[in-house]
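Protocol step 6 of 9: fold each sequence in the batch and record its structure tokens directly after the sequence line. For illustration, a two-sequence batch is reproduced in full.

Sequence one:
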Amino acid sequence: MNSGTVLKKIFQRPESLKKEPFRYCPGCGHSLIHRLIAECIDALGIREHVIGIAPIGCAVFAYDYFNFDVIECSHGRPPAVATAMKRLMPDKIIFTYQGDGDLAAIGTTETIHAANRGEKFTTIFVSLLTPWFSKVALMKIGLFGAAWDGAIIPVTAISC
């Protein structure tokens, strides 16, 4: 390397992520998705106005990693909590971060009703393709029968 070369830093931790090592399982996509969410929040300059809502399960660890307010709630209930938060604090930007078991199984009704009412929050639906859990969640909502073949369900974002 030339001694006159100046290196430019092009990759750094987003301000919306705490300096905390992730403790998710190897190969899990939560850490990557957390980073993408944090980068978007930083790019939009909304960190001081954001409140995240995470249910029990792996998603609950979000409060350890995001550098903004995150509320924990019962399994399947993030849309109900998001509805209350948005109605109490309409100037805040509210999002839910839910896995397949939470949103596609126990929380399906909450999500459908919030969307039907036109609630003003964003739901980030994370399906990490855990074969057993995704199979169970999808069978509960009737998308696949007992002969489920392991079809891939993409990470999806639903804006209500």
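Sequence two, same batch, same settings:
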Amino acid sequence: MPPVYVLAYGPLSARPWQLSDSANSQTGIASCGMRRNEDAWVNKIAVIGATGMLGLPVTAKLLKAGFEVTALVRDQERARRILPEQTKVVQADIRDIASLKYGLKGQDAVYLNLSVAPTARKSDFHAEGEGVKNIIEAAHFNGLKRTGYLSAIIRDSTENDWWILDVWRNAIGQIKGSGIPYTIFYPTNFMETIAQRHVVGGFVALVGKARFANYWIAGDDYGAQVARSFQSESSANREYVIQGPEAMTYDEATVRFAKSSKDRMRVVKVPLGLLRCLGVVSRTADFHAHMMGTVLRYPEIFRAAETWAELGKPSMTIEEFTVGHQQRLSH
């Protein structure tokens, strides 16, 4: 089976990702046949952020597509516990250019799954700031053929002047101006966000009130699209809007998730204003207040027709996602 290098830069999940077929993998893009890559133009991919919420499904789908995946991580022992066993693990840090050059040696491409820490200050080192600069330098040193980058559909929001939006835009500018062929993904809300960010015990916290609907997508479907992009040279220097098959407001998606959970979780509404007040004394609360405010006010429209035509159409419903997610937790 051909190689994918993964630099885990972000919180490590405590739950292993199952690569084997499950209820989730029988739906959506994952059900379409993916060819092996013996003769492909890209065989080895470095994925930076493999152990994150969205790095895990992308890594699993890259492996399933026939790529060789290696994780470049700061903590090898912890990464080996949660990544698919087919994943190679190498130690590296995006603050350390020498380790990046070593980790990217012999690779064909790099996929970036980065994030800004909720406690971060504007003046701090940022993975999507100085980190991207270091990655680009290491990629040039090793002659990589492609950079893939997970951004966000809300990166062009005009609702506020939140500095993190500028960090995202700067990362896009660096990648597009690097001279290395790129593929950039602009996703809507992920179903994983509800399962991993809003569940507290037997409750699901619903923050604020959505003005617009979003085309929610599951990480499995997105991961399959990423894998397809690396299978095609025609996706170079392209930007793809990532959206799922059905429009739902944040409220609707949260309620459907709760109702389809095996224990029928209770939805608890939290005023956005309360989170903003807490943000006066807590950087984490301030981060989440800004994030939710931006997401809830973003006037999303459907723009993924071209993405579906080229990378496959997602089909996983929120109910199918919930069942699959809870099956993973029970293993």
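Proceed to step 7 once all outputs are recorded. Observation for sequence two: The domain at 5-330 is CATH 3.40.50.720 (Rossmann fold).
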